[in-house]
Amino acid sequence: MALLRDWGLTLGKWTGRPAVRLVKDSGDPDASRVREAARAGDWTTVRKVLEAHPESEGRTELLWAVGDTPGVERWITPVLEAEPEAALPRLVAGIRHLSWGWEARTAARAKDVSREQFEVFHSRLRTAEEWLYEAAEREPLWTSPWYGLQITGRGLEVGQVTARRRFEATVRRDPQHLEAHQQQLQQVCDKWGGSHEEMHAFARASAFGAPGGTHLGQLVAAAHLEEWLSLDPGADAAYMRLAEVTKSLREAAEHSYRHPDFVRRGGWLQVLNTFAMAFSLAGDQEAARECFRATEGQVTEFPWYYLDGSDPAAAYRKRRSSAGR
Q: How far apart are CA 325 and CA 323, in angstroms?
């Protein structure tokens, strides 16, 4: 319980109830700054912010802040032309076309996506791949181009072998890259051509193959939530309350956020939110309360949008109350 000791918390009575608030961008003010610069087409500021965050030190989230901003696809073109040898503008162009592609596809089920939407989706992803490969060639040690290629690959259905190679290319450069592992977990889950068995095996191997205190422990909880999400009502609740699921979650918790070496950096808040939801659904209210205490009312969109896509904070609030908090 080192995490709780470090924060001056106890497992006894928890007095006071922190206000619930949705936290985006891990609360990093640079994310808002770089997003505003992207909206304004201010490449000088975008570059300054991104260069201040080296690879594997918070750059992934900042790249998404830029990539999710409409209009980047227009102003990045002259930047690419003006800096033909620079990797960073190519990385930004790749991430923007990646995000732009998924915008065209939408989050709808494949059967509900039109042929025209798929054509735009695939066209933008192919463009993204070109820019990402160029960025990777110019900066061979960077992880972000390969991380982006993991996501384009899933959309373009490159297959499990190629997808695995892209994941391995990312983690060779950063073995603890949480986002890369999250993408590979999606790649091997049932809905993307893998299986529940493969998904759980990957999650456990990644989590327990990493040092104690790892954020990768989240993968174990996320895998259980993925299987829960795939089941029909009734069967989903029964699955989460299996003794083996609770045991698995507790083991992962001990190796992750309960470990003395766990630190509040990067995706730490999402890790705790994921365990909070998983333990709550599993009926382990004591463990859920522990996670809710640690998050202090700070809500991440994932995984709570699985329960309420329009208001993840409401789902968090409801489950926190159910846990007796």
A: 6
